[in-house]
Amino acid sequence: GAGAMGNSCSIPSVVVTLCRTLLALACAPLSCAAGAFTLLFSAPARIWVLAKEGDIKAWHAVILMALSFGLSLPIGGLVGVVFGLLTAMYGRNAPEEPFSTKPANYSRHAIPPEREVEAEKMKADNEFAFTFETTTFTDASDPARAVTTHAHVVKPKNLDSVKGVIVVQHGLHCHAGAPRTLKVALHMAKEGYIVYCPDAIGHGRSCGSWAVVESFEAIAQNLASVFGEIARRHQGKPLFLQGESMGGMLVLYSPFFMDSLALDRLDGIIAVCPALMVADDAGDPILEEFIRLWPMPMLKGLFPKFPATPGPRGNIFSSDEALNKAAQASVDADPLEYCGDTKFLTAMTFADNLLKERNRRAFIDKLETMDKPLLLMHGTDDKCVDVRCSREFYKGSKSSDKRILEFEGKSHVLLSENEETRAKFLSGMTDFADDLVQKKTEFAH
Question: Where would you find the membrane-spanning parts of this chain (predicted)?
Answer without folding.
Answer: 22-41, 62-90
